[in-house]
TrEMBL record:
GO terms for cellular component: membrane. It comes from the Bacteria. Pfam families: EamA (PF00892). InterPro entries: EamA_dom (IPR000620), EmrE-like (IPR037185). PANTHER family: ACYL-MALONYL CONDENSING ENZYME-RELATED, BLR2811 PROTEIN. This is DMT family transporter. The chain crosses the membrane at residues 21-43, 55-74, 86-107, 113-132, 139-157, 163-180, 192-210, 222-244, 251-271, 277-295. Keywords: Membrane, Transmembrane, Transmembrane helix. It comes from Hwanghaeella grinnelliae. Residues 22-154, 163-289 form the EamA domain.
C-alpha cells in the first residue's frame, strides 16, 4: 500500500493541512493493521493454499463494505466513470496479493516488507511512460539507490537465491502498476469506490480458481485466519484512506516505513525470525532513498503550485 494510491480532493487537502498529527497517527495505525494482515497471511500458509487465503482476504473485505457502507452509500459504491481501468487495477492487485501470500510462506516478513518498499521507485520510474512525468536527476538517483538496497536484501551471487524472492519482486512490480492505474482512476472516481472495486474484483477473480484448490480447514485456527486476513485488510485500508484526508502525502510517506517495525516484531515474536545484516542494510538504504524521493516529490509539487499561483 502506498500514499500514491489515494488522492484526496483539493477541499480535503486544505482540511488535512490543519491536522497533520492526526494524519500521521492514522497512517501509523494503518500500517500496524497491514502488519497484522501480513502475519495472518503467513500463518494461513500453514493451513491452506495461497489462492484460498487471497480469496478470503477479498471476500471478507467485500462483505464488510457491503454491510457497513452499502446502506449509507448505495449505488455510489459502484459508480465509476472508468470501469475498464477499475477492473484492470483490481485484477493487478489480486494477482499481486497472490504473489505476496505465496512468498510469505518461504520468506521472513521483514524481507517481504523491504522488497515491497521498492514499489514507489518503480512507480517513479514508470510515471514518465504512463503519466507523462519525467523523472529528474535526483529522482533517478533515489530510484537507482533504492533498487541497490533491494538487491542487498536478495543478495544475488552471495547466497543461493530462493525462487520466492522473484515471486515477491514480481508482486512488487504489480503493486507499482496498480498504484499507477489507481492514480489515473482517482482523478474521476472516489477512493471508496476504488476500494470497493478492489474487493469486488479480487473476490471474483479468486472465486474462479478457488474450487480447484479449496481445502476445508480442519481446525478452528484455519477459519479464524481466513476471517483475519479480510478484517485486517479492510480496517487497514479504511484507516489509511482516513489518514490521507488529514495530511499531505509527502508528510505521510515516511511513516509508511514504520511497517518494517511491525514486520520485524511480529516475525520475531511468532516465528523467532530476526533479519540478518543484509536485510537490515538493505532496509536502511531503501528507506533512506524512499524518504529522499518523497522529499523531492514534495519540492516538485510545491514548485508546481507556486508556478500555478504566479499565472
Amino acid at each position: 500500500m502506498s500514499l500514491t494510491e489515494q488522492v484526496p480532493s483539493p477541499a480535503v487537502k486544505a482540511l488535512g493541512e490543519t491536522k497533520p498529527l492526526l494524519g500521521v497517527s492514522l497512517i501509523i495505525l494503518a500500517v500496524f493493521f497491514f502488519g497484522c494482515l501480513e502475519l495472518s497471511a503467513k500463518l494461513a500458509s500453514g493451513y491452506m493454499p495461497p489462492v484460498q487465503a487471497v480469496w478470503a482476504r477479498y471476500m471478507v473485505h467485500l462483505v464488510i463494505m457491503i454491510v457497513f457502507l452499502g446502506p449509507v452509500l448505495g449505488r455510489k459504491l459502484v459508480r465509476t466513470e472508468r470501469l475498464p481501468l477499475q477492473i484492470t487495477r483490481s485484477v493487478l492487485l489480486a494477482l499481486t496479493t497472490m504473489c505476496q501470500f505465496t512468498g510469505l510462506k518461504y520468506l521472513q516478513m521483514a524481507e517481504l516488507t523491504v522488497i515491497n518498499f521498492a514499489a514507489p521507485f518503480i512507480v517513479a520510474a514508470l510515471a514518465g511512460v504512463m503519466l507523462g512525468e519525467k523523472p529528474g536527476v535526483h529522482r533517478w538517483a533515489s530510484i537507482i539507490v533504492g533498487f541497490i538496497g533491494v538487491l542487498v536484501v536478495i543478495r544475488p551471487g552471495i547466497a543461493q537465491v530462493h525462487w520466492a524472492y522473484f515471486v515477491v519482486l514480481s508482486g512488487t512490480v504489480g503493486i507499482a502498476l496498480y498504484l499507477l492505474t489507481t492514480r489515473m482512476v482517482s482523478q474521476v472516481d472516489s477512493a471508496i469506490t476504488s476500494l470497493f472495486f478492489t474487493a469486488l474484483i479480487g473476490a471474483i477473480v479468486m472465486s474462479i480458481a478457488l474450487p480447484f484448490v479449496w481445502q476445508t480447514p480442519t481446525e478452528p485456527e484455519g477459519w479464524l485466519l481466513m476471517l483475519a486476513v479480510g478484517v485486517f485488510g479492510a480496517i487497514g485500508h479504511f484507516i489509511f484512506i482516513l489518514g490521507t484526508k488529514f495530511a499531505q502525502g509527502s508528510l505521510l510517506a515516511p511513516f509508511m516505513y514504520v511497517q518494517i517495525v511491525w514486520s520485524v516484531l511480529f516475525g520475531f515474536i511468532v516465528f523467532g525470525d530476526l533479519p540478518d545484516i543484509y536485510t537490515w542494510t538493505g532496509a536502511a538504504v531503501v528507506i533512506a532513498s524512499g524518504i529522499y524521493l518523497a522529499w523531492r516529490e514534495y519540492l516538485a509539487a510545491r514548485g508546481r503550485r507556486a508556478a500555478a499561483r504566479a499565472v
